[in-house]
Design goal:
This protein is of the alpha+beta class and 156 residues long. It has one domain. It is built from 4 helices and 5 strands, in the order H-H-H-H-E-E-E-E-E. A 5-stranded antiparallel β-sheet has the order 3-2-1-4-5, covered by helices on one side. The protein is globular, with a radius of gyration of 15 Å.
């Protein structure tokens, strides 16, 4: 079971609305690996080809603008949604995961995820110094272990 409706069954914005509302139920009970697998479309499966990356990013932001669930993990929700729909539309998104180094000494580490395409951050750029842990491309996760680059692009 997945929060994502079968591609092409609904118009893009309706499909995204359903997935955004179901996502909290799936993130609460799953580790990261099953979430990444859920967000990864079947290889070769395409839908919403007529949508540009900026349009998808803007729609994802709008769909979760006023969260009533996952408030503390907004970047994860947005990242999984954006990754899924960007990949379905034929883009090659990367989902990055990092941690704030200063938060590691305390009780709860401050983690963050963001989405890039072609080396440019398209969604949720890190706002403070971040140590990038790994990058997921839809096939594998690559350990990085480096300071994150905050290269921001205006996607509009």
């Amino acid at each position: 079971m997945t929060p994502f409706p079968p591609p092409g069954l609904l118009p893009f914005r309706s499909d995204l609305w359903v997935a955004a509302r179901l996502m909290p139920m799936f993130t609460k009970r799953n580790d990261l690996e099953p979430l990444l697998l859920m967000a990864t479309p079947t290889p070769g499966l395409r839908a919403f080809d007529d949508l540009g990356a900026a349009e998808i990013i803007d729609a994802v932001k709008a769909s979760v603008a006023r969260p009533w669930r996952m408030r503390g993990r907004r970047c994860l929700r947005e990242g999984l949604l954006a990754f899924h729909y960007l990949a379905l539309a034929g883009h090659a998104p990367l989902l990055h995961f990092g941690v704030v180094p200063q938060s590691l000494g305390g009780g709860k580490p401050a983690a963050h995820c963001w989405v890039s395409i072609g080396g440019k951050i398209m969604l949720n750029p890190p706002r403070r110094p971040m140590h990038e842990l790994f990058v997921y491309d839809g096939k594998s996760s690559v350990p990085i272990g480096r300071p994150a680059l905050a290269e921001i692009t205006d996607h509009a």
